[in-house]
Amino acid sequence: MKKHRRSIMVLAIVMVLCLATGGMAAKEQYVDKGNWETIKDLVPDVVLNWVKTGDMVVRYSTLDFDAGKVVPQWVLESKMENIGKYKLTENKTIVDAATGKPPKFIKGVPFPNVKMSDPDGAEKVIWNGLYMRNANGSLHNELEVKFFGRKTGYERSIWCDWFSKPFEGYEPARSEPNPNNFESVNQILIKSPYDMAGTAMMTWRYRTDKENMLYGYVPAIRRVRRLTPSGRSDALFGSDYAQDDGGYVSYDGAVNYFNWKIIGEGDVLGGFISAKPTLVIQNKAGHWDFNFKNDGPIQWSFEKKREKNSGAPWFVDSAVWAKRPVWIVEGIPKDVYYNYGRQIFYIDKENYLCYWKVIDDRTGKHWKTLWTYWAMGQDADKTVSWNAMLITTILDERMQHATAQDGNKNYRCGVNLNSNQFSLAGFTALCK
Asked: How large is the C-alpha radius of gyration of the chain?
């Protein structure tokens, strides 16, 4: 009888160990061409094909944090405070639902609790994504723009400074003077190589349906020139990106430039730089720096030379991919001269970050795919949270060429930027 009880106890211990081991295996696994069926319903079809062919190896994992809650505090508050508070006009600008007038200031995200049945639901999702970047405050990031070819691997890099200043969404911006009625302004300045240094672009986005203003500075003529909105779909600095491929929602233009539609919802694998929150530290100037030391080294496929668990040169093999709930949103440009055709966005329902964008040309044929690896930042006490669009990659499927924007050297939120920097005179001074 004692032996029988002992055997039952041993069996129970073995079962517990097996369950524990199974739990660990379920927490993280590599998905490649040998077991691609594991994620067949969790990625866009074009991405699944990469896994089938061995171009991409997915480190499928779970997160040690709630990605829907690692957002600035005012975003969490706005999810309750802004329910039903705002609506969209016929031109898709935001107005107060009670008065029909433009609000003086919008805190956090304007449209929590989006419904698929809402005829303006898609536009509201895009507005929320635009406001999520705003909610992270003024940004100053040092970007390394990497170029890759299938045969050539890593080719070269361009180093840039990125500046973004919000007048909406970011709670401390409530008291910021805003005589031009901006929603946000941003700049990108090339620092190297030498033959491109000083080249820059600046965008003014308005809170109304006024057309976005886009400016470029060319060192050869030492002048600022206004650019057309359709130029936002042109190649940016010789890369695979267009100007409108930026932003936390993988779109950086005016909402009313496109016809939008929610075409589905579900779960998708989203890319994260780490399964744990990245530590953010407030420096002496009051800015919040992302400290990536505890996240481990970022490993690119081109560095590993197609070793095990490695794919095409433009992938980050060290990133983790976790299941997230998304809206699937279709955007079709109204401008007949816009280079892109139909675009499909996979946007998180809870934090409004975009994980994938699939781009067709004007004839409806697939052209490019864009994806992002996010860093979700928290301070040591887990009371302050920020988001970082740390690495974004876009692949031109026809040319088999990719470009990645890598911000892991210096990513800073809540920066004190002077509004004068975004005037025409300030922009010119920045470029010289």
From this structure: 23
How many C-beta neighbours within 10 Å does residue 58 have?
28
HSE, side-chain direction, 13 A CA sphere, residue 315 = 24
Q: Kind and range of the H or E element at 322?
A: strand 320-333
Q: How far apart are CA 206 and CA 181, in angstroms?
A: 6
Per-residue CA distances from 80 to 73, 75, 122, 196, 243 (Å): 12, 9, 20, 47, 33
For CA atoms 94, 98, 100, 101, the dihedral sign is negative
Distance CA 417, CA 164 (A): 8
Pairwise CA distance, residues 428 & 410, whole Å: 24
Query: What's at 170, amino acid-wise?
Result: Y
Q: What is the pLDDT of residues 254-303, one digit of tens each?
A: 899 999 999 999 999 999 999 999 999 999 999 999 999 888 889 999 88
Which two tokens mark 341? 């055709």
Q: What is the pTM of this model?
A: 0.91
User: Which distant-in-sequence residues (6+ apart) come within 8 Å of 183 by Cβ?
Assistant: 130, 134, 166, 167, 168, 205, 206, 207
CB-based contact 298:408 (threshold 8 Å): yes
Helices (H) and strands (E) in the chain, counts: 6, 20
Contacts of 246 (CB under 8 A, 6+ apart): 252
The answer to whether 110 and 128 are in contact (CB under 8 A) is yes
How distant, in Å, are the alpha carbons of 98, 105, 116, 419 from that of 181? 21, 10, 30, 13
Banded pLDDT at 313 (limits 50, 70, 90): very high
Q: Whole-angstrom Cα distance, residue 222 to residue 199?
A: 10
Peptide bond just before 44 cis, omega within 30 deg: no
What is residue 350's predicted lDDT score, i.e. its pLDDT? 97
Whole-angstrom distance, CA of residue 182 vs CA of residue 187:
14
